[in-house]
Design goal:
Length: 117
Amino acid sequence: MNQARDCITKVCARKDELSALNTTFKACTVKPVRDKPTSYRHINVVFHSLAVLAISAQWSVRYAVGCLHWLDDGNMVMVLALDTILFAVCYKMSFTGLGVDMWNVSFSDITTTLLVR
């Protein structure tokens, strides 16, 4: 497998290299194909929900006590906004190849992911 990989890397273009590595990997190994996009989506949703829940609980307690810290709360809003953007990007990428071996991702998805994100 390593000899074939070395030869393919030296001779082939990137697209042909990925296709050849995919064929070689499937033909010469008995390892299962890594397919983890579903678990990545679940983990992503759980952690984003925990972040929103934690910030909501902190704001509720601060409002009930009457002790709002505007600088701290503003910072939390910015962090939550950044977290929401990263959540959306990672969630979308899990449908276009995040969590799958690179040579099992279609070339159009690789191009879209590299150009857009």
